[in-house]
Design a protein that fits this description.
The protein is of the alpha/beta class. About 35% of the residues lie in helices and about 25% in strands. It folds into three domains: about 160 residues, Rossmann fold, CATH 3.40.50.720; about 160 residues, Dihydrodipicolinate Reductase, domain 2 (2-Layer Sandwich), CATH 3.30.360; about 90 residues, ACT domain (Alpha-Beta Plaits, 2-Layer Sandwich).
Length: about 450
């Protein structure tokens, strides 16, 4: 069977090939080189990088590596390479690189969250067929070992929910907007200048990057196939300093969260701006930091936080996967310890709920005419749709219109959509209503 040569007991050395020598790949090479002796003592054998492929070859960066070039498939086909590190990113050629490496009986470690979230089901099947592992700790939350926590530390728990700040760029933007009352566009430009955001920031600010990560965590937590296309995704570009100020006045902070929750109706998988109580630990994670809270039936709430990106942090997670696989070989195991998502059998019957079916509390910001009786009309519309009011802020008018901010009780999203449509049709309401979800977990705010 393919992969058997990788599982022979007590190999003399684990030979690694790296495909992609950008921020993460370069960090991985540096860490494996600088900490080589320490890693060898921890594993029981040396780990050596013997082949590297990078789009633009810089001899200084690959000094000391036996072979290097620009073709990643040459590394995949190299018989002297036992394990492939894929840090190319994207889908092309990363997908074929990983697929061919697995088919050739080589273990693969990847930091590519988009690849795992959107093509992981197929790649895990190839890995299983060839008796090798596809490891991806570094694909979620950078240097925070949340994948290991879900698959190992919490393996005896039924996971009820998890919620996380899993995109550092978005968290930096919201933190800066909150601290200095700045507009979204201004802080985004600063994030780009500082290297936190790409020239095209869509994946970060519109929630796609976070949705990839949530898809992976949710599938591990609940033991279901990866379903990225079913994950609801909403970004932060519509958040204003006024919303942040109103949230503070009500005792909340606005965070961009990925939320996965098990319910009787199915699995919730959603990424969106969320009001978080100031008293909660997630509310205190600022800057580019990441954090994930996980609730297990035995352990209760646990929190994992740290750097979510960067060469050293992500390389740390890549190397941790390499070390795990090296220890696996040293033990002489004949099967991968953690195939795929950590389950021998996935539950294909678990379905991801449509966002219209979820239940939440809500923040509504309504711009209304400064007239007697307008608040009564708004209250009546909400009441007609079965939505209760928890708190209200109504500022003094500085023009003919006044902002009214409402926190609601729990409501079904579909009903809230109907209520918002009815409110926006009122002659005394101007423009679109701002809606931000406020998420309760087990009767408590996050």
């Amino acid at each position: 069977m393919k992969g058997d040569h990788l599982n022979s007991p007590k190999p003399e050395v684990l030979r690694v090939g790296i495909c992609g020598l950008g921020t993460v790949g370069g960090g991985t090479l540096n860490l494996l080189t600088s900490n080589q002796q320490l890693i060898a003592r921890r594993v029981g054998m040396p780990i050596e990088v013997v082949n590297v492929a990078t789009r633009t070859l810089d001899p200084a960066k690959v000094a000391g590596v036996a072979r290097s070039g620009t073709d990643p498939f040459a590394v995949v086909k190299d018989p002297e390479v036992d394990l492939i590190v894929e840090t190319i990113g994207g889908f092309d050629p990363a997908f074929e690189v990983v697929k061919q490496a697995l088919a050739n009986g080589k273990h693969v470690v990847t930091a590519n969250k988009a690849l795992i979230a959107e093509h992981g089901n197929e790649l895990f099947a190839v890995a299983d067929e060839n008796n090798v592992s596809l490891a991806y700790e570094s694909s979620v939350a950078g240097g925070i070992p949340v994948i290991k926590a879900l698959r190992e530390g919490l393996a005896g728990n039924k996971i009820d929910w998890l919620a996380g700040i899993i995109n550092g760029t978005g968290n930096f933007i919201l933190s800066e907007m909150s601290a200095h009352k700045r507009q979204f566009a201004d802080v985004l430009q600063q994030a780009q200048e500082m290297g936190y955001a790409e020239a095209d920031p869509t994946f970060d600010v519109e929630g796609i990057d976070a949705a990839h990560k949530l898809t992976i965590m949710g599938s591990i937590a609940f033991g279901m196939p990866l379903r990225f296309s079913s994950t609801y995704t909403e970004g932060i570009s519509k958040i204003t300093p006024e919303d942040i100020s109103y949230a503070k006045e009500l005792g909340y902070v606005i965070k961009h969260l990925g939320i996965a929750r098990r319910t009787d109706a199915g699995i919730e998988m959603r990424v969106h701006p969320t009001l978080v109580s100031k008293s909660r630990l997630l509310a205190k994670i600022n800057g580019v930091g990441n954090a994930v809270m996980v609730y297990g039936d035995a352990v209760g709430s646990t929190l994992y936080n740290g750097p979510g990106a960067g060469a050293e942090a992500t390389a740390s997670a890549v190397v941790a996967d390499i070390i795990d696989l090296a220890r696996h070989q040293m033990a002489g195991a004949t099967k991968p310890v953690y195939p795929g998502l950590g389950y021998r059998e996935l539950d294909d019957n678990l379905q991801v709920m449509n966002i219209d079916a979820i239940e939440s509390e809500y923040y509504l910001r309504i711009l209304a005419a400064d007239k007697v009786g307008v608040m009564a009309k708004i209250s009546n519309v909400l009441q007609d749709h079965g939505i209760g009011i928890d708190a209200v802020i109504q500022k003094e008018a500085e023009s003919e219109s006044v902002p009214i901010v409402i926190l609601t009780h729990l409501a079904i999203e579909a009903q809230m959509n109907k209520a918002i449509a009815a409110l926006e049709s009122l002659s005394d309401v101007t423009g679109s209503i701002m809606r931000i979800r406020l998420e309760p977990f087990h009767g408590q705010k996050i």
